[in-house]
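Supplementary notes for students who missed Thursday's class. We covered one full example, reproduced here. Read the sequence, then the structure, then the short commentary at the end.
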Amino acid sequence: MKVPLSIPKSGRFGALVFYRRRNRQYARVHVIPADPKTPSRLQTRDIMRAVSRAWSRWLNEDERQQWNLLGPKVLSRLRLTRGKLTGQALFVKLNTARAWIGRDLLRRPPQRPVFPPNPVVGLSIGYQQGRLRLKVSVSGPVEGDLMVFAQAPCPATRKKSRKPVFLCLLPPPENGESDITDQYVARLGEPNPGRKVFILTRQQVNGWEDHSMELSAVVPQPERLEARGSR
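Structure (token representation):
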């Protein structure tokens, strides 16, 4: 339900959850969500549990102090306001991102990098020898780790992605394109003609993540492409 706009609120308070959408204040009754225990969720919990334990069981006091010095210099993601991170929160944040792509945990905090422009410039969906292919176009060399997230196929009318999941690191491009078909189909299934595919790409260096770039494309009809090729 929409509530009068007074003091902006976000998060749970008692039996209500407050949130904002399009500059309007809303509230809903708090409901304990179902826990489907999907492989993705279980993997996420295992990673965060292991990284959280590493803070107290793996680091020594000198290493923790280094994280504690850097943590307050990093602001949390914007919700209503931004807050400073603790050293432990920064340790978990960076090392969780690294663990997702199979990188070793960092004992000491790395310096924040300056990211170059995201080289991804487009997403194309077509057919080659009767098989659907999803390809990501890049405008230049890929430096560091470029993470690819994706959403399950959705209606073509949708304008923004919802709850994307980590797919893979961008495969090495060939002739300016990286094929992500096998990774997408293995994780989310093959999209049918007329459905929209969303992907997000995000650069990462030592756990620090750049802003995400969102791209989308609608799966075309195979017969239309065959008709064009016969002209």
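Commentary. The chain has a mean pLDDT of 87. The first helix runs from residue 39 to 57. If anything here is unclear, bring it to office hours.
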